[in-house]
Task: structure prediction
Amino acid sequence: MTAVVVTAPVTWLERLIQVRHGEWGRFLLAFAYFFFLLGGYFMLRPLRGTVASNNSDILHLLYTATFFIMLVIVPVFGWLVSRYRRSRFIPGIYLFFMTNLVYFIFTFDGDDTSLWVQRGFYVWLSVFNLFVVSVFWSFMADIFRPEQGQRLFGSIMAGGSLGAIAGPLLTASLVADFGSKGVMTASLACLAIATVLAVALGRRVSDETGGAQPEVIGGRILEGAAHVFKSKYLLLICLLMLSHNLVSTFLYNGLAVLVNDNLEGFAVRTEFFSWIDLAVQVLAFTFQFLITSRLVVALGMPRAAIIPPVLLAGGFVILGSSMGLVLFAAVQVAQRALNYGLLGPVKEMLFTVVDRETKYKSKNFIDTVVYRGSDVTASWLFKGFMTLGMSVGQAVWMYLPIMAIWSIGAWKLGRGYQALRAQLESDRKEG
Result:
């Protein structure tokens, strides 16, 4: 099911964000949907950052717990996708996580929160984030063609970045006066609005296609996971994710250690992480709204895909030469801005050239189990370096070979995307 493109862009706004006349309805709903979805999540993320710094000595165990919970949930998701239309399983998933959040509203209370509730919240939010965002982008890949994805996914992701900018700002302003309960309640309201918009977007797509409903995907529950290991293209996406997560988890864990050593107090740490999130999203929004789509079109997918590892390798060389909380935070900001602003849209574009079962089942397996599995690997690797007596500054140099592998894999993946897209367009013309 795809949108009908009527004319080329004619207004300055359409030229700026590359939206065409027949695409405005879907685009605006998708933009607002992602705004409230990430707005709700990023209100909670600074709380998770504070929990991470409070439990920096056992982060590797929290990552491991998250991974095993993913292993349990993925078959349940596969069962839902195999038996229900997306108009049912998408809002159902969001409502499930909203119910969980209500529990934390009543049990989470800043510095007075028990360590076990804090750790449960950390694991829950890590699961929540990956599932709801994965479902969103599976939906987008299902309703936009590859050519539309190249033009629109950067701008749609910019809607999420605006939400991610608003979220930390609201958290920073609410946490001192209303505490964690106030932050979580506001987040719950955002997620409720996102759910309503998801339903509205599904109905819009149905109306544009003459009331036709997408078929139930069907198939076996674990078929999507099995397909990953049979596809070189999907395995390259896994390599891309593993390489990135080895780097990003090092930066996340290293920053948690440095914050634990240099800052004290729940509110102070939460505010610090809020400002980091704000800086990340301002930079990411600039990429998404003005640069990413044009960059992919101008350079092609292979060249665009290798930009993040090349730039980060330079940042790690600088970081290894001079260590400090502010500099380390700046490199993490750069890494996350590149992730959200360039790597994220590119990764979602990669799924526009595969079939529906891959878009939902295989993609969800990659975005959750593979993602968190790579997090577990990365966190234990970081723990191993610290156990061996390395400082955070010394461990930096161990990640340069990883970024070299990342660059090679990203180039091959971009070439694979181009081949699949050419085949898809050829089949559409013949059909």
User: Anything to note?
Assistant: The longest helix spans residues 146-208.
